[in-house]
Structures are given as C-alpha cells and as structure tokens.
Task: structure prediction
Amino acid sequence: MNKKNIVEYNHKILSEERKKQKKSLESISNELTLSVDQVKSLENNLMHGFITPHFKNIALKRYINFLGLDFNKIISTDIEFKKEVEEVEEVEEIDTGDKIKPPFLSKLNIKKIPNHLILIISCLIILLIIIQNSNFDQENPNLKTNTPEINTIKEKIIANNTQIPINKDFLENNKTIPKENTQEIKNEPDTTPIEFLCSIKSAPINKIWSRQNPDKPADYFHIISLKKQSICTIDNQGRFKQYDLNKGTKLTHRGEPPFKIQLNPSMSELYFQGWKVILKENDTFIQLNPVEMNIN
Result:
C-alpha cells in the first residue's frame, strides 16, 4: 500500500455530524450505495471494505459532500488527495487594496532596491501616464464634455456620434465595471449530485436470496427502477456491468448465476426466477443464488 495515498483526516467529525443530522448508518449506506462496514470504516479511518486507498478517498469525498461539511476543515494531508479526487482551478490572488503588486514583483525583494532608484522609477511611471493622457485628449478633442452623466469613454463616443481611434490600453484601464458584476459572491452549498461508486467486488454481501420452486430460468434477473439511480452487477464468470437507470426503467440483465448486485433498495423492484425479491432498507449488496427448476 502506497503511504502517500493514505489520507489523514478528522474522522470523528463524520460520525458527530451524522448523529447531529439524526441519520443512521443504514440510511447513509443506502444514499451512498456503500456497505455499512464501509461507512464505519470512513468514520473510524480504517481500510476495511476498500481494495485501495483510491476508492476510499473517493467514498470519503462523497460522504463529506453528502453531510454538507467543509472539505478543507476535515482533510489534514490534502496535497496528494486533492490531486486525486478534486479538480482544482489554480487562480492567481489579486490584491484588491490601494496598492496592486504586479506578478513580476512577487519574487523581487524590494528591500534590496535603493530608495533613490525607486523614486526615479515612480516619477517616470507618473510622467508616462500624464503624457499618455495628454496625447489622448489632444487627439480626441470631441470627447471633452461638461455633461456629468457621461462617465465613460464609450458613452462619450456614442453621445458625439463619431468614430474616433481609441487607445486600447487606456480604454481597458478606464472602463466602468457594471454594477451587476460587482455584487459580493456568496458561498452557495454544494448541490452536485452524489456520484455512484461501485464497490461490488470488494464489499461484503448484505443479503443472499434464493427461492424454492422457481418458475423461470436463473440466467437473468429483472429490475424496475422507481427513481433515477445507478446499479452494478457481476456474475459467476466475473463479467461486470454498470447501468444508469431513469425512473420507470425496466432492465433485464443476462449472465451466469449467481449474480451479485449493488443497488438502492428503496428505489428498486428486483425479480429472479419468476419471484419478487423482498428488499429491506440496508440490502444494498445482494447475491442471487439459483435453484434448479423441477421439470415434470
């Protein structure tokens, strides 16, 4: 096991928040399509029920999002983990104060620059700005107006109804930002749908089902999805299949029994060998065992 992939996190927060929201281990298991043992492993920072740290990391992120917790307050070693399970957009931080520090000065030690040199550079910059503004006013006398309502260069051009060559750099530095774009950005809750994580190959089976006196062959099972969900299944030959089902979808899956199935029991009607499989709340991982048909 690669130790770099093992995530250190405050696992106690998960169980505390779950109990605070009055959610049982079984309900969390159904919502995340994980086994109860896997949920317990996440709450106790164990590897039981997970083949690799990669699958545990993905399940952990889904659990954190489902409880509505702050991801950064729980994860302590987040360098490798964030690269693996979280898409991060790298954005440069911009100083919004009066003094804006250009990117090329971020690595420059200003303390080593002589004071007189800084003064000379500042004067030159101010002089260039004055000259640029002066030239612009001389080249575009029609832009001058005493109307207080006209505040931007674009508005002046429209008011005078004339086409004047604009200094693009100057226009960019003096454009007015619309009010609707200056509103404070509020942190909205994460409403991203919970991703389906199939762990049928490693998770323990909750229910083994078979029925005496079968009416139909055992080389297929039938499922009706009551809501939108994802399921996965594997047969005796190790053939794996995952399905994304919509509300009302009727699916017939064929293979060699016995079948192992991972689904949401509250959203599913399952049939095998002509009989309806009785599903309970925590029957997330099911194995369908065949029974030979009596042919007279």
